[in-house]
Specification:
217 residues; seven-stranded mixed β-sheet; 7 strands; 35% helix; 24% strand
């Protein structure tokens, strides 16, 4: 029987020292490879100049600022996050971009946006929620996208950590316990059941990370 996880198992809300030094810690954990990886992953999104993009869990603003490079003045980004320290950093980092805005909002709670965005992006956030809340987030993404819009998930790929290398097992010992539950699920099937199709995948870090793109019916 699969283990039953509770919301208290989640480590998705980063605060304090970890929040203030999040980008630096990501660089250190990945032995300096993260900046190159995230540039490549965002390029793979294939952002159009006039895209309107919703980011669920915008963090320090690093990703929105990188994505902004591909937009014209007609494009726009709205980032949602719940962390005060994360939002403060995001506002500062993207302060020169008037078409990048941020809002304090829980992404698993109902969103007011409907049929608004060309793309919805979520990066290394979905795995930190219990499955019930993941499905609410997916529903929010579906509602926020117009027909034919893309839902893009950058997160762990599907694999069994117990059968992986010692390095991967070590990473998952430090990770949120919900991450193990996440990687053992079939995400294309789950997304298909929730109104998405036309799946396209790019893999990174020896196949342990995926950029999974899908389209709203």
């Amino acid at each position: 029987m699969a283990k039953k996880y509770e919301r208290s198992d989640s480590k998705v809300e980063v605060t304090g020292f970890e929040a203030r030094n999040y980008d630096l810690m990501m660089n250190l954990i990945t032995v300096g490879t993260y900046p190159f990886f995230i540039h490549r992953a965002i390029k793979e999104i294939n952002i159009n100049p006039d895209d309107h993009i919703l980011i669920l869990g915008s963090g320090t603003g690093r990703n929105p600022c990188l994505m902004r490079r591909y937009l014209s003045d007609q494009g726009a980004i709205l980032g949602l996050d719940i962390g005060e320290e994360m939002l403060k950093q995001a506002h500062h980092l993207c302060r020169h971009f008037p078409n990048v805005t941020f809002k304090k909002q829980r992404i698993e709670k109902p969103l007011s946006n409907k049929d608004t965005f060309d793309k919805v992006f979520i990066s290394f956030v979905l795995h930190g929620f219990i499955q019930e809340d993941r499905l609410k987030i997916i529903s929010n993404a579906h509602r926020a996208l117009h027909s034919g819009g893309e839902f893009i998930i950058l997160d762990y790929n599907e694999f069994d950590p117990a059968k992986s290398s010692w390095l991967v097992q070590s990473v998952f010992k430090m990770e949120c316990p919900l991450a193990t539950d996440f990687v053992l699920r079939d995400w294309q099937s789950i997304l298909k059941e929730n109104g998405f199709y036309d799946f396209r995948k790019n893999t990174h870090y020896f196949g342990h990370v995926q950029l999974l793109k899908s389209t709203k019916h």
